[in-house]
Amino acid sequence: MEGWKRYRLNLYYADRIEKYRTMADTSGATVAAFGRYDDGDGDEIRNDFGRVPVFHFPFDSDTHSHGTAELRDIVPIQDSLNKAMHDLMVACEVVAFPQRLIIGVEEPVNDDGSPAALFQAGITRIMTVANPEAKAVTFPAADIEKYQSVKTGLYQDIAAIKGIPIHYFHLGGDFPSGESLKVAESRLVSRVEDTQVDFGDVWADVLAFALRVENGSDTQLRTVWADAASRNERSEAETVAIMVRDVGISQKEGWRRLRFSGDEIATMEAEKELETTTPASAFGQAFDAG
């Protein structure tokens, strides 16, 4: 059976895991049939956890329980983009430089009959032909920019269908900032937040099951995601400052909105209290001293 591939298959159940492997015929060649396989620990393992240890991450599960592939809608466009890029590479190889044609000149050959170079260009060289009726024709190089335009158009189609900001495809030029960036990324942020909802419960189940396998604990977990939107810390700080000053929210609430952790807020409150009490203590000591 040396040199023949074997395929292994595990079937997971809530109470057991069965192990299989492709079988071999009398010559040792692998056949399509699977049979139970003992790898030294038996052909079956007990599963004491009461559930199949496989976790499904459905994308866009609102359509159905299995979800929908993220790239389904843009696969045809991606195929077109691949074709356009292939054509671009061929054009760069074949027609990205001027083509020259000389009419009325016989092709020279070497002594062994192989084609010889007709001209050798160079700053100190002069190229001549014996036939005064000979003509030279030049075909211009292909316009490679047209292929770039096709590529850009396909990028725009992908961006429009999937809600991806166009500046993700082109890093040059004017990069949006501030409110313009929020508007440009709004559809993408919405999709990311929907995906966080779809994946969050599954990740919590995965890690809870890992803890159960590790130490037998039955722990309820909750997935906490980072903010999907791009952050402009200066703009956020200015907005929160206005809300503290004019709207009337507390400074502690302002710190929360700036995403400071509970420990960081406690430290800042202690430091602020120290800053206010220290001058008062110093004034009291000076007053007592006259």
Task: Please give a structural write-up.
With 290 residues, this protein is an alpha+beta fold. Among the domains are: 8-46, no CATH class; 100-140, no CATH class; 238-273, no CATH class. Helix content is 43%, strand content 12%. The chain is built from 6 helices and 6 strands. The protein has helices at 75-94, 145-162, 178-215, 233-247, 251-257, 262-288; strands at 8-12, 16-24, 30-36, 44-46, 99-103, 135-139. Strands 1, 2, 3 and 4 form a 4-stranded antiparallel β-sheet that branches. The chain has a two-stranded antiparallel ribbon with strand order 5-6. Helix 1 packs antiparallel against helix 2 (145-162). The model has no long low-confidence stretch (mean pLDDT 83).
Instruction: Write down the Rg.
Output: 36 Å
Main sheet? Answer: 4 strands, antiparallel
Distance between the termini: 102 Å
Approximate strand percentage:
5-15%
Class from secondary-structure proportions: alpha+beta
Low-confidence stretches: none
**Strand tally:** 6
Shape: flat
Mean pLDDT level: 83
Helix content: 40-55%
Write the SSE topology.
Elements: E1 8-12, E2 16-24, E3 30-36, E4 44-46, H1 75-94, E5 99-103, E6 135-139, H2 145-162, H3 178-215, H4 233-247, H5 251-257, H6 262-288
Antiparallel strand pairs: 1-2, 2-3, 2-4, 5-6
Concise description?
The protein has 290 residues and is α+β, with helices and mostly antiparallel strands. The chain has six helices and six strands. Among the domains are: 8-46, no CATH class; 100-140, no CATH class; 238-273, no CATH class.
